[in-house]
Design goal:
about 30% strand, alpha+beta, six-stranded antiparallel beta barrel, six-stranded antiparallel β-barrel
């Protein structure tokens, strides 16, 4: 019943539209006769027929334009989809190239992964990645950026995902040293304050702006960039210097990392 009512409504609308078009043509014709008297009835009828054809031509043009616009919209949508696919492939190729280079430098098998969640709360700094036990991930494996920076280590493993303890977490620690120097110690996370470089004596040589890297004395590969020395608090009454370090990596949602 509802479909029949809709059909009747469409039919009535079509009739109303046709009547309006005819009335418009008649009004235009009357206006022409007013400003151009002496036109014969035959010429008048011919004029009306011509105007009707003209209106029908306009309607056909509008219909054709509508079809062309629909085709253009489909074409644009296809081009956007193609561009998105090409960009995704380029990003994937770039990731693979960087992974291969990092693998060659570290001489280890690496597994690419993506970060899909970050938690930087007062109770700890963690990230979730989209690789888990089904991909061969195990606990305590190190997580590295594509540029060779230390991100953290695997803390918990699930079937298709894993939780990463970031280097800024207070429970994280790693042996480290100054790049191109002999000074070495322990890097520990301090949440929002970044990192501390502990066990550096007053006699050890270190300056603000020095780059800190891993030593490789533990399970972490050697030569991974940890961060840059931000501040050195010297106090001769203490055995050790208090050194603050800015982490070199600030991972975010969508970042690509590798698991060593």
């Amino acid at each position: 019943m509802r479909s029949e009512n809709i059909s009747k409504l469409l039919f009535i609308s079509a009739i109303v539209l046709a009547v309006l078009i005819v009335l418009n043509i008649v009004l235009l014709h009357s206006a022409r006769r007013q400003y151009a008297p002496g036109i014969s009835a035959g010429a008048s009828l011919f004029d009306i027929v011509g105007q009707t054809r003209e209106w029908l031509g306009y309607i056909k043009q509008w219909k054709d334009l509508s079809v062309e616009n629909a085709k253009l919209r489909d074409l644009i949508a296809n081009q956007v989809s193609t561009s998105a696919t090409v960009e995704a492939l380029q990003n994937e190729n770039d990731t693979l190239r960087k992974t291969v280079g990092l693998k060659t430098r570290l001489k280890r098998n690496l597994l690419p992964a993506g970060i899909f969640n970050i938690s930087l709360g007062p109770d700890g700094h963690y990230a979730l990645i989209n690789k888990g036990s089904a991909d061969g991930v195990t606990a305590d494996r190190m997580v590295i950026s594509l540029n060779g920076g230390l991100v953290g280590k695997i803390n918990s493993v699930f079937s298709t995902s894993s939780r990463v303890m970031l280097i800024t977490d207070p429970a994280f620690s790693v042996t480290a040293r100054v790049l191109n120097g002999q000074t070495s110690g322990i890097i520990r996370g301090t949440l929002a304050d970044g990192l501390n470089f502990d066990l550096i004596t007053q006699a050890d040589v270190i300056s603000e702006g020095d780059i800190i890297i891993t030593t490789g004395d533990d399970m972490t590969p050697a030569g991974l960039v940890i961060g840059v020395v931000r501040n050195i608090d010297n106090n001769d009454t203490r055995l050790f210097k208090k050194i603050s370090v800015n982490p070199s990596i600030q991972p975010g949602q969508g970042s690509i990392v590798v698991i060593q």
